[in-house]
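Field reference: sequence -> structure
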Amino acid sequence: MKFETMRVAESIGDDYLVATYYMKSDVEPDLYDWVKLVAADQTAGTWTHVEGETPEVVEKYGAKVIGIYPMAGERAVVARIAFPTRNFPAYLPMIMSTVAGNVLGQDGIRLVDIDFPESVLKELPGPMMGIDGIRKLLNVYNRPLVGAILKPCIGVTPDVSAAGALKAAMGGADVIKDDELQSYPEYSPMEKRVRAVMDLLRANGKDKACLYAVNITGENLFDRARRAIDAGANSLMVNYQSMGWGAVEDFIRAMKRENLIYPIFGHCAGMGAYYRSAANGIATALSCGKLARIVGMDMPLVYPDSGRFGISTNELVETHAQCIAPMKNIKSCFMTVAGGVHAGAIEYLMNLLGNDCMLMAGGGIYGHPMGAEAGAKSILDAMEAYGKGQKVQDAALNSPELAAAVEKWGTHGG
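Structure field:
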């Protein structure tokens, strides 16, 4: 079999972006030919020769296959394909169109990772503040951030949201966010909600110690951000997958151009359609970790490994690594674990992820038997106990709030 586009990785230089795919099929006659076709389809080629497709064009603009690794025990390979960066601007929608466009419409292909060369990374936005910037802003070090999701998530007026935010803040929450379902309903306009929450936090001395990430998801993100900031917002939230890579990247770039440096919370609503299949879509660590970080999310939400949302422990750990590992000019970000988190899970999650993350609860705070303030305090107490080397059950002996949480929800991994 002739394979004109196969190269060794050392030969391609820094002018290529490398995508890694898991490819499995029981019907493709030859998996190596299949990899070759994918490389051609996504660059200078197609399933048949066409006029103008000269060897010179293919050499300059065609993708290069730099690795095919057969998987033991299954008819599958891991393939690494290098795409010339001259084919696309450093703009995530075009990058994703290149590496995940038509190719992911085929059965059995999963995009596992993307290796970005420095020439591309330096042109992409990344988080505005990152872990270091947010820690400095809040003066919180040596532990994860405590996060709260406002509940009830919808159907309540701004004053109710404000009262709920204050309870969590008084209990020790560092970040409070809207639910992803709450944006700009008639009963709670964004600007009124921001003013109500921030005024109450300010009146109780919590406006500097606590971020309120108001959901601005909707038409014209930058305009909505300006209106939220004018109303007093100290943090913003977007449902980044639902909005799309282009809209979010444009928003982050506009914020930077105007020197509006605010921490951005990113919700992964809808991302399950990409990561849930083991044989198709986009890997969790890439979709919810690396790409969310690169597009500019300071605090990207990821579901825990409790089983409800289909993320394994290994996926959670790998996603966290993609959020904190050095990446040239791209700042690290606070991976935010949310979805069934409560005080009894803190020891397990901190043992898994360490301090550079945010552990966020909705029901685990607002469903606490002693109230939301106690719910937030129970999570903070669990974090502080872990930092001292205490088991959560032992710490609960000196914390009624933690004891009540453990009694109601138990412990995870204990």
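Note: DSSP finds 18 helices and 13 strands in the chain.
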